[in-house]
């Protein structure tokens, strides 16, 4: 299949939109002025059920919905469009709205490492073992998820893009930091890069002789959005060759695949692509956020994890939707998130219970809701760090007062009358540095 992309500029060419109501088409027009919108011919022709598009998880995953904007934001843009205002006027209104949507959650600006006296662009080092690398050529995707928190990378100017061309600096940094065992190449979607670009990065890392660097991870949504990347793209074989190079060098290649719904695991193309990737010796681990309107039912998760295991993949993370962008539309309360996780987790066999969650990627770390319980008559959330800015925080249970309406860490207060969570003083100190 030849990749055909649809953006706000040309999506009206999609033949299937004849099944979409006038009102929904208008909603796409309005919302896509503010939030990123991009889809492609695989998603349109193989994933979306157009006869039932209004409730279709794949449609909601890719096509802007009215509820993704606050009513006042929606009306503001709608009025400008109806008044036939100049595009530049609409654009500046959109930019103002975007700024209100918390484009940089979880204090990402604090994780930028320093090498040779300079801040490294395109790199984050938050957790001891793992360096995040955002190659500048991989900061877009084959289609955009409507819930995505990385949207500032797609819609704003270069200045806040995490872009990095110099792998040499990264290698130097990893050499100095023997605690780093993993590099996680991420985006956007690094698999939008040409094989030759990925090869440049990978070969440099392998040739650098870094014995402590054991795992090369690639975070990608290509298996759901464009499995033909590994089947029919002109450099499909070459990409698989780069993967093989990693495993042949004795490093482990962890392909961190992003799937949101079992539908994404059903096409012939995805099944073939998974097989091709596994044949290179790569391990595929899977992750997804929990999203209202898309996958907020335990049965969906249980089905998804079982299918993943059947296809040879390892369920890895369930995330809680972040406090950015269209969180109000997609957000699930912490209480419900835990309930959905527990029901799904307890209904699959041990081989699928490799999954961890539901987890919030917040400023102090990845915090899991381990449960809801009663301690001496006080109803509490039991929480636990899966990853922490300080490794010493990991695996210690702590408690927050139960709150039915909590959607994120910010909504929680310490239980048992405590003034603060155990990590807060140290966190404040770490963030000063
Ligand atoms: C999730 C994450 C990682 C990887 O964490 P693992 O639990 O090892 O998968 C690394 N860095 C950041 C900033 C992350 O958010
Ligand atoms: S594939 Fe990942 S980075 Fe790209 S839009 Fe979806 S969630 Fe965001």
From TrEMBL:
Belongs to the radical SAM superfamily. KamA family. SUPFAM superfamilies: Radical SAM enzymes. It comes from the Bacteria. It comes from Xiashengella succiniciproducens. InterPro entries: Aldolase_TIM, Lys_aminomutase/Glu_NH3_mut, rSAM, rSAM_sf. Its cofactor is pyridoxal 5'-phosphate; [4Fe-4S] cluster. This is Lysine 2,3-aminomutase. Gene3D superfamilies: Aldolase class I (3.20.20.70). Keywords: 4Fe-4S, Iron, Iron-sulfur, Metal-binding, Pyridoxal phosphate, S-adenosyl-L-methionine. The keyword Cell inner membrane does not apply. PANTHER family: L-LYSINE 2,3-AMINOMUTASE AQ_1632-RELATED, LYSINE 2,3-AMINOMUTASE-RELATED. The keyword 4Fe-4S applies. GO terms for molecular function: 4 iron, 4 sulfur cluster binding; catalytic activity; metal ion binding.
């Amino acid at each position: 299949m030849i990749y055909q992309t649809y953006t706000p500029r040309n999506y009206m060419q999609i033949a299937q939109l004849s099944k979409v109501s006038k009102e929904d088409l208008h909603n796409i027009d309005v919302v896509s002025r503010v939030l990123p919108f991009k889809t492609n011919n695989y998603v349109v022709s193989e994933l979306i059920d157009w006869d039932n598009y209004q409730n279709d998880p794949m449609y909601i995953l890719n096509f802007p919905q009215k509820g993704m904007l606050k009513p006042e934001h929606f009306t503001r843009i709608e009025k400008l469009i109806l008044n036939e205002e100049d595009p530049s006027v609409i654009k500046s209104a959109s930019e103002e709205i975007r700024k209100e949507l918390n484009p940089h959650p979880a204090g990402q600006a604090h994780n930028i490492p320093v090498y040779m006296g300079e801040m490294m662009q395109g790199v984050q080092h938050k957790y001891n073992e793992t360096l995040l690398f955002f190659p500048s050529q991989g900061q877009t995707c084959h289609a955009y998820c409507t819930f995505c928190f990385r949207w500032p990378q797609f819609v704003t100017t270069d200045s806040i893009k995490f872009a990095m061309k110099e792998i040499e600096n990264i290698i130097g940094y990893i050499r100095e930091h023997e605690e780093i065992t993993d590099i996680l190449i991420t985006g956007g979607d690094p698999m939008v890069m040409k094989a030759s670009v990925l090869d440049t990065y990978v070969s440099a890392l392998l040739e650098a002789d870094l014995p402590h660097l054991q795992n090369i991870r690639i975070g990608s949504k290509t298996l759901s959005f464009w499995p033909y990347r590994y089947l029919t793209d002109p450099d499909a074989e070459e990409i698989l060759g780069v993967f093989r190079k990693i495993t042949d060098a004795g490093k482990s290649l962890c392909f961190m695949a992003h799937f949101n719904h079992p539908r994404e695991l059903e096409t012939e193309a995805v099944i073939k692509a998974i097989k091709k990737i596994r044949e290179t010796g790569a391990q595929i681990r899977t992750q997804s956020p929990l999203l209202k309107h898309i996958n907020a039912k335990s049965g969906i998760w249980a089905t998804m994890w079982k299918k993943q295991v059947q296809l040879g993949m390892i369920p890895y993370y369930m995330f809680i939707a972040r406090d950015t962008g269209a969180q109000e539309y997609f957000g699930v309360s912490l209480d419900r998130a835990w309930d959905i996780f527990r029901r799904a987790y307890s209904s699959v066999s041990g081989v699928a219970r490799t999954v961890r969650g539901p987890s919030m990627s917040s400023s102090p770390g990845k915090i899991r809701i381990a449960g809801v319980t009663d301690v001496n008559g006080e109803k509490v959330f039991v929480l636990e760090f899966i990853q922490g800015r300080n490794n010493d925080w990991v695996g210690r249970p702590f408690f927050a007062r139960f709150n039915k309406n909590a959607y994120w860490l910010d909504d929680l207060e310490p239980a048992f009358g405590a003034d603060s969570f155990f990590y807060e003083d140290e966190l404040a100190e770490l963030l000063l540095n």
